[in-house]
Amino acid sequence: MANTSNNKVVPEAKAALDKFKYEVASEVGVNLKQGYNGDLSSKDAGRIGGNMTRKLIEQAERNMSN
Questions:
Q1: Spatial CA neighbour of 25 closest among 57, 55, 58
Q2: Using an 8 Å Cβ cutoff, are 60 and 29 in contact?
Q3: Are the C-beta atoms of residues 34 and 20 closer than 8 Å to each other?
Q4: Residue-number span of the structural domain to which 60 is assigned
């Protein structure tokens, strides 16, 4: 079995994270479709992941300040 760090800490959050990923892709103008996205450039994938991370950190910081 492959050793991967891509495991979800909270598996129940998978659906919410997938929805979030498509919302962020839409916001940054990346055409992300259900299923295979092998034609997606690394640059576009990075834009999606980077923006997801930025938004999740912002949310955590807001929660910590309250």
A1: 55
A2: no
A3: no
A4: 18-26+42-66
For the chain, the domain total comes to 1
pLDDT tens-place string over residues 31-58:
999 999 999 999 999 999 999 999 999 9
- Is residue 66 a part of any domain in this protein? yes
Within a domain: residue 54? yes
Residue 62 belongs to some domain of the structure = yes
The closest of 53, 57, 60 to 28, measured between CA atoms, is 53
Would you say residue 55 lies in a domain?
yes
Q: What is the pTM of this model?
A: 0.80
Q: Which amino acid is at 21?
A: K
First to last CA, the chain: 42
The phi and psi torsions of 50 (rounded to 5 degrees) equal: -65, -40
As a whole number of angstroms, the distance between CA 34 and CA 22 comes to 9
